[in-house]
Predict the structure.
Amino acid sequence: MAANATPLLEVKDLHGHYGESHVLHGMTFDVHPGEVVTLLGRNGAGKTTTMRAIMGLLRKRAGSIRYQGTETVGLQPNKIARLGIAICPEERGIFASLSVRENLLLPPVVLPGGLTVDEVHELFPRLEERRNSQGTKLSGGEQQMLAIARILRTGAKLLLLDEPSEGLAPVIVQHIGQIIRDLKKKGFTVLLVEQNFHFASTVADRHYVVEHGRVVDMVPNDKIAENAARLEAFLGV
Amino acid sequence: MFELLGIPPQALFGQLLLGLINGAFYAMLSLGLAVIFGLLNVINFTHGAQYMMGAFGAWMLLNYAGIPFWGALVLSPIIVAIIGMVIERTLLKRLYHLDHLYGLLLTFGLALILEGLFRRQYGSSGLPYNNPLPGGTNLGFMFLPNYRAFVVVASLVVCIATWYVIERTKLGSYLRAATERPDLVQAFGIDVPRMITLTYGFGVGLAALAGVLAAPAYQVSPTMGSNLIIVVFAVVVIGGMGSIMGAILTGFGLGIVEGLTKVFYPEASSTVIFVIMAIVLMVKPAGLFGTAK
Ligand SMILES: Nc1ncnc2c1ncn2[C@@H]1O[C@H](COP(=O)(O)OP(=O)(O)O)[C@@H](O)[C@H]1O
Ligand SMILES: [Mg+2]
C-alpha cells in the first residue's frame, strides 16, 4: 500500500462502552481502498465491539472513525450504511421469518456499483437452489454464505466480516477464503475479524493484533511467517 | 324450514351474523395490537381509546364539518393515526429501552386521559350515528341488513390485505426483519425509527377504522373502547401475540363462538371467551398461534 494514499477507513483513539463497562481503550488503525485487513485477537479482545462501533451499533463510542474522510461517530447506523459500509455480523443475523430470497434482497441498495443478483448467485449457486427455504433452515455454512451474499448487492465498498470461518467445516472455510479473494479482485475493501490466523494469512494484506480493546501490533502478511510463533502464542492456539 | 336442536334458523343465523360482526372488530383490533407489539414491544393499552376516537372522529366530521360516513371512513383513521404518531414520537419512543411495564403504564394512562376528555365534553350516554346503508336482503333463512354485511366484508378485506402486505411483499419483509432484529435492519440502511412511527400509526389507524365502522352499528360513546378492549386482550392472549394470521383467525373465530353461545347457552355468552382464555393459558401458554419467546 502506498503510504501516502488516503485511507478508506481511519479509526483513531476509539473508545467504547457497554453501559458502565469500558471495552475499547483507544483502538487506532486504518484500512486502505482495496485492502483486506484483519483484526486478530483472542475471545473478548474487543474485535466484535470494534465492528459494532464502526457500524454505529455501539451507541457509547468516542474518538474518531472516518470513512472516506467523513466522521461517523455520532451518526445513526442507517446513515453510516448509506455511506457505503455493510456488516456481516458474527452471529450471521439471518432472519427466520424471511425466505432465503427475502434475506438476500433485504438490504437496500445504497450506492451504485454493487453486484447484481445474478452475479451473487454465480458466487453462491447454492443460495439460488434454496431461495424459497426459510432463512434459518439453511446449514451453518449456507447461512454464512447468505450473510455475506446479501451485502454484496448494496453497493457498499467496505465490508465488515466478523469471523466468517467460525464453527465451519474446513472445506467450507476454504470456500469462504476463495470468496474473500474474489471480492478483493472485484474491488471490495474488507475488514475481517479472525481468531484463526492461518485462515487470515490466506486472504489478508495486513493484520492488526488486538488485545484488551487496543491495537498492540501490526503485521503485514508477507512478514507473517517470521512472526508466526509469536502470533500463535499470542492468540493461544 | 329446517330447525336445529329446536332453534329457529332465523335466531341461529342472526346470532351467527352478530358474532361475525363482533369477530370483525376483534380481528381488526387484535391485528393492530399484534403489529404494534411485534415491532415496538409495547402492549398498546390506548388501543380501545383510539378505536373510540375513530368513532368520535366520524361523528365530529359529520356534525361539525358535514362530512358523511364514506369520507369519515378514510379521514378519521388518518387523523387518529397522526395523533398516534405524535404520541409515539413524543412519548412512547422514550420507553423502548425500558421494561415492557413502562409502555403498558403510559398507554394505559393515556387511555384514561383520552376517555376522560371525551366524557367531559360529550357525556357518557352515547351519541347516535345514522346507518349509511339502510335496508337489507331477505335470504330466506335470515334477513341480512346491508350495513352488517358491509362491515364483515370490509373488515375481511382490510385484514387479508394487511396480512398480504406483511407476509408477501418487500415492505412486509422489512417489517418482519425489523421485528426480529431492528438493530441489524437499521445497520443495512433502513430508517427503523421512522418505520416504528409509521407502524404505530398504521396499527392505531386500524383501530380507528374499526371505530368508524362501529359508529353506525353501535352508539358513539366514550366508554365503547374500554368495554371492547378487555375482550380484545383476551382474544390476543388466546391467539398469541405476534402472529398476523393468528390474530385474524382468532378474532373472527371467537366472535362466532360467542354468537353461537348466545344461541345455545345464553347465560355463558359474556364469559365464554374468558373461559377459553383460561383453558388456552393452561394448555398452550403462548397462545394458539404464538411461539414462546
Ligand atoms: N452486550 C455486551 N454487554 C456487555 N459486555 C459485552 C457485551 N458484548 C461484549 N461484551 C464484553 O466486551 C468485551 C469485548 O467483547 P467482543 O468485542 O465481543 O470481543 P471479541 O469479538 O474480540 O471476542 C468482552 O469482555 C465482552 O465480555
Ligand atoms: Mg467477536
Chain A touches chain B at residues 55-57, 76-78, 80-82, 86-87, 89, 93, 95-98, 102, 105-108, 110, 151, 154 (CB under 8 Å). The CA atoms of residues 130 and 138 of chain A lie 8 Å apart. Chain A has a mean pLDDT of 94.
